[in-house]
Specification:
Length: 453
């Protein structure tokens, strides 16, 4: 029998696997679910190519449409054309950079131009269903190599191709952030930095930096408990992961727990907790009594795993799979001193981390998500103690989910006093944090207002 470790995977195999993943995203599946089904031996390469393709998909779609105006009859062939056009374009860009004495970006999957063409044709030839289209793939890619500049100039007349986001998304970001829209859209083109949050119960920022330096891992401090690695790497290759010294958490997300100002003994609700990044941070900061809810029981298991690894599980922590917008099953009538409402959102602030999000969302999702967020806030506000603090958070850059929701909350509840918080954080470039929104409220004491929703 063949030893699986001895099997060599070609670029043709990777292109085909990436095309299958892209087809699944086009059909509405999330990329992480799809990649979870790819065999471990090929997952890394497939992920690298697919992430890159999704970050450049607007252009690939437009170019495919220009060169093959009629949608190919087999969806896998269409996806493979998009993947191949993107990989070939990157190969040509890289070749031009090298010829000019420059270095291509480290996150690009770079292959020689002739390899990209040959292997894409090979991928078609190797799959029974699409084999008859070998000549089509060959012709399209060779035409692209000859006419690239003219083709791209024309393609980029379409904002979707220029900015690699759906047109409705470009329009909304442009409208919302007239001075920063290019920066916000452009930031999604880069992979995020790998930022760690030190678990201050196990380790200090200085200790972690020293351990990293001793292991030859370049890193620098970020904020009070963040550490940014110069180059992302698997978590198990970084000292202290299994010992629970740190968690991976973006610098924008690291602001949540400190903003809530939890103190020992407080009764705290984390209403949308999974996978538990902010839950753990709250528990690292103070000995609190914590109820962590999430509507998704499978995601909630990850909260438990994270708390176990970080050694934060104790008698005062309770995890419950429940819908935060319906209090009956989980609220005993005892009000909370502090509530973290890290509500479900479109995720438009974390598209560089999840490059499939922009292609999976529909414009109508915004209104649907806004309505869900309001239902959750309405239920939670009544569980907050007078004098208590309420932190509303999203990882979105659409103001409908951010500032407009904060204003709605204030209008809805006369006893809500808005406190200092960062508001909208925009992703400003490759080194910056994710797009987040933070609004902090105190529930005024002694206000006799009928604010039951
Ligand atoms: C932005 S994520 C939370 C991230 C988490 N706070 C962290 O820092 O790791 C939003 C979460 O809300 C959950 N969710 C969606 N609808 C919900 C509902 N009605 N009640 C409670 N949780 C909900 C989702 O399953 C998802 O895990």
């Amino acid at each position: 029998m063949t030893d699986p470790a001895s099997i060599r995977y070609s670029l043709a195999d990777t292109l085909l696997a990436s095309a299958r993943a892209l087809q699944a995203v086009h059909e509405g599946q999330s990329l992480s679910d799809v990649l979870g089904q790819v065999p471990a031996a090929t997952r890394g390469a497939t992920q690298a190519v697919t992430f890159h393709v999704l970050r450049n998909l607007g252009q690939a779609l437009e170019v495919r449409h220009m060169l093959v105006p009629k949608t190919p009859p087999v969806p896998l062939l269409d996806a493979l054309l998009q993947v191949a056009l993107c990989v070939l374009d990157t190969a040509m860009q890289a070749e031009a950079l090298v010829a000019a004495g420059k270095t291509p970006r480290a996150d690009w999957p770079v292959y020689a131009v002739h390899t990209a063409v040959d292997q894409a044709v090979e991928a078609v030839a190797g799959h029974r269903q699409i084999r008859p289209f070998k000549a089509l793939m060959n012709g399209v890619l060779r035409r692209f190599t000859r006419e690239r500049d003219a083709i791209l100039t024309r393609a980029r007349g379409n904002p979707e191709a220029r900015w690699n986001h759906p047109n409705w998304w470009v329009r909304r970001i442009r409208q919302a952030w007239p001075e920063h829209w290019k920066m916000v859209l452009g930031a999604a083109d880069f992979p995020p930095p790998m930022t760690l949050r030190v678990n201050v119960r196990q380790c200090s920022q200085a200790q972690l930096l020293a351990e990293l330096a001793a292991s030859g891992i370049a890193a620098h401090a970020q904020g009070p408990s963040g550490v940014v690695l110069a180059h992302p790497r698997p978590v198990h290759d970084v000292p202290g992961f299994t010992q629970g010294w740190w968690s991976v958490q973006d610098e924008s997300a690291q602001l949540a727990a400190p903003l809530l100002g939890v103190k020992p003994g407080m009764r705290v609700l984390d209403a949308c907790a999974a996978p538990g990044g902010k839950t753990a941070h709250l528990l690292e900061l103070a000995d609190i009594e914590l109820l962590a809810l999430d509507a998704d029981p499978v995601r909630l298991e990850r909260v438990q795993q994270n708390l176990d690894r970080l050694q934060l599980t104790h008698a005062g922590v309770r995890l419950l799979a429940a819908d935060a917008s319906k209090t009956d099953p989980w609220w005993d009538g005892q009000p909370f001193d502090a509530i973290l409402a890290d509500v479900p959102c479109t995720g438009s602030g974390v598209v560089r981390r999840h490059p499939d999000i922009r292609w999976l969302r529909r414009e109508t999702d915004i209104a649907r998500t806004v309505a869900l967020q309001r239902r959750i806030v309405k239920a939670l506000w009544q569980t907050l103690k007078p004098g208590g603090h309420f932190l509303y958070v999203t990882c979105s850059v659409f103001p409908q989910e951010g500032e407009e929701q904060a204003r709605w909350l204030q209008a809805q509840y006369p006893d809500a006093v808005r406190l200092e918080a960062p508001g909208q954080l925009l992703p400003t470039g490759p080194e910056a944090g994710d797009g987040f929104f933070y609004a902090l409220f105190a529930k005024q004491t002694g206000v006799d207002k009928n604010n039951t929703p």
